[in-house]
Exosome complex component RRP45
Amino acid sequence: MRETPLSTCERAAVLAAISRGVRLDNRGFLEVRDINLSFGKEYGSCTVTLGETRVLAQVTCEVVEPRPSRPNEGKLSISVRLSPMAAPHFESGRGNELMDELQMILDRNIKESRCLDLEALCIMAEESVWQLRVDVTVLNHAGNLGDACNLAAVAALRHFHRPDVSVEEDGRVTIHTFEESEPIATYMKKVPVCLTYAFFIIDENIHMLMDPSEKEERVMSGKLVVGLNPHGEITSLIFPGRVLLSKKDIMNCIKSAFKKAKFSAEMIQNLVDEDIVKRKSSVKVDGFAKNLISDTVYASHMVKKTIDKGQNFKFQVPRESDEENGSLNDEMDEDINDEESGDDNSDAKPNKSDILWRIQSIRQASTKDDDATHSMETDGESEEEEKKPKLTAQDLI
């Protein structure tokens, strides 16, 4: 499925906002979206959210033979997968330019920078070493996938613990479970951080901003991906796009990136250390469950939302016009006055506003009139019968 292009109005709105120094999400040009890290129940499982962008990274390990050129070093492989749930135009099993770009960013920033101590992964030189595999899956694409994938991969590697092994005299390798022996943490020399700058050419002027969103990426003229660590070393520098930048602009981006890199590296280290301390103190690990909302919680949330929304409304009973109300009240007053003056056998006086009682009273009045006329007819017949002479036995004789 092809990506749906932006309309002319959307493109013009993004460029017009940037030309006036405003972004659509009300951020500053050098402001990064909120970053959240959460760890799964197993070591090496991490999800990173950068705004609405969400990425999952999982680290696994296995025992393999080392390379002949490096017999005492372990192996590290990184793979990126664009899930179809991340965006409609991502197709599983098919690569594209974005996947190749993300793969290049992670390889240069993590693998080629040698931030991981590969010699510590050696079990027996020239015979067996550990191979770490990092699988990065994009769950939601909302812009700046390079930074999010790098954060997820680095945090997962920093959080990963491999099982302990023992080597027998005959060269056999025994892998112990976590219950049998305490797992061994992965040692990282430095924490690499990736920062992305987007450039826009508007009226022959170049505008620069950090952490571009998905719409900004589709409008930008080019970008600069800076990979570095908090020690001041540049691990990678990728410059895709068609924008010509001067040396001064590139140096300004690198200086700004150093300030952000130190904060991101400290955040990753602190969050990973906190989670490891909780696991070692026998605290129950919730994993990703804390990021989910159960059906009962969601239902109660919707009920509360409906109640709060309903408090703003005023329910009014529809009323008749004033003329109809006036005539109706007059008729009801007359009926009630007549009953109070004449009828002793009537029921207790009901409420005036009871329309059903009014209808019932009218029916009772009509039935009373029918009974009165019927009684008058019967009385007249009886009087005529009394006026006629009655026949006796003597008259017949």
